[in-house]
């Protein structure tokens, strides 16, 4: 009977340890959490104006072209995510596949528009 008891305690310790490691990995962003957005954007009330975002797009036409050439599903445009703050905007990059997202992320790791960017899967 004592052997079964120790076996049960060992299994419980392994399970608890596994949950702690997994929870810590997700909490520290070592393990990707489904639905987690890599690019954080400022909250509504702190976004730039639509004119600033349009200006950033026009000043970085080469970056827009490079991003849109990643794949057929990629588009770059001005997005207004805050209904209450109509003049606030950001750059919205829409993609279809994981490969497109990875390529877009790779480009954005080295280049910036100077305004917030939001990636949306369609």
Helix count equals: 4
Main sheet attributes: strand count, strand direction, barrel closure: 3 strands, mixed
Order of helices and strands: HHHEEHE
Based on DSSP secondary structure assignment, what is the total number of beta strands? Answer: 3
- Helix proportion range: 40-55%
Q: How much of the polypeptide forms β-strand, as a percent range?
A: 5-15%
Termini separation comes to 57 Å
Global shape? elongated
Strand order of the biggest β-sheet: 1-2-3
Low-confidence stretches: 33-37
Mean pLDDT over the residues? 83
Rg for CA atoms:
22 Å
Instruction: Please identify the structural class as seen in this structure.
Output: alpha+beta
Provide a brief overview of the structure.
Helix content is 47%, strand content 13%.
Structure description:
The longest helix is centred in the first third of the chain and has 26 residues, at 2-27. It is built from four helices and three strands; from the N terminus they run αααββαβ. Mean pLDDT is 83; it is low at 33-37. Strand 2, helix 4 (98-110) and strand 3 form a beta-alpha-beta unit. A three-stranded mixed β-sheet has the order 1-2-3. The radius of gyration is 22 Å and the shape is elongated. With 122 residues, it is of the alpha+beta class. The N and C termini lie far apart (57 Å).
């Amino acid at each position: 009977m004592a052997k079964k008891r120790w076996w049960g305690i060992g299994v419980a310790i392994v399970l608890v340890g596994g949950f702690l490691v997994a929870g810590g990995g997700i909490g520290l962003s070592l393990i990707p959490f489904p639905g987690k957005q890599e690019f954080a954007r400022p909250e509504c009330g702190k976004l730039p104006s639509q004119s600033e975002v349009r200006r950033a797009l026009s000043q970085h036409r080469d970056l827009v072209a490079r991003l849109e050439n990643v794949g057929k599903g990629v588009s770059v445009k001005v997005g207004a995510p805050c209904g209450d703050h109509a003049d606030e905007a950001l750059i919205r990059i829409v993609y279809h596949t994981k490969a497109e997202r990875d390529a877009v992320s790779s480009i954005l790791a080295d280049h910036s528009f100077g305004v917030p960017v939001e990636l949306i899967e369609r």
